[in-house]
Task: structure prediction
Amino acid sequence: MCVLLYDDRIRCFHTLQALDELVDDNNEHAVPMVDATIRHKQADDELISYQRDKKFLLIHPFTQMRDFYRSQYDELLNMCRQYPDEFMSEVTNVNKSIQRYGLWISEGRQKSPEQLQSWLRKVELLKQKKQVMSDLLRR
Result:
């Protein structure tokens, strides 16, 4: 995990350098520069915390995803072992939910931009959960 954070920190630094030159000429690149600065700072803070305390702060997207994966994996592994029928039902529900939200998004059924962002976040979380389930089923 530390290697991924370090690589992302370096990539953000190089992106910041390139964007810094572009922002001097054109202000439309200011938003990506701010995003890269925030991500760079998050990676830096995560690495400092891990070096000092051997714990991640869970503020960087990589560490958040890792934490989500681990919690989902433990929960679904327990369900798979104790209630296999319920687990298979959950697999079906997740697949159907991904299809349903994907259809709603492609048809433009959202009532507001906030609802669209909410649906996109739900689809992303469902896809991550589906990946965890796939990993469990491969075991």
In short: DSSP finds five helices and no strands in the chain. The mean pLDDT is 87.
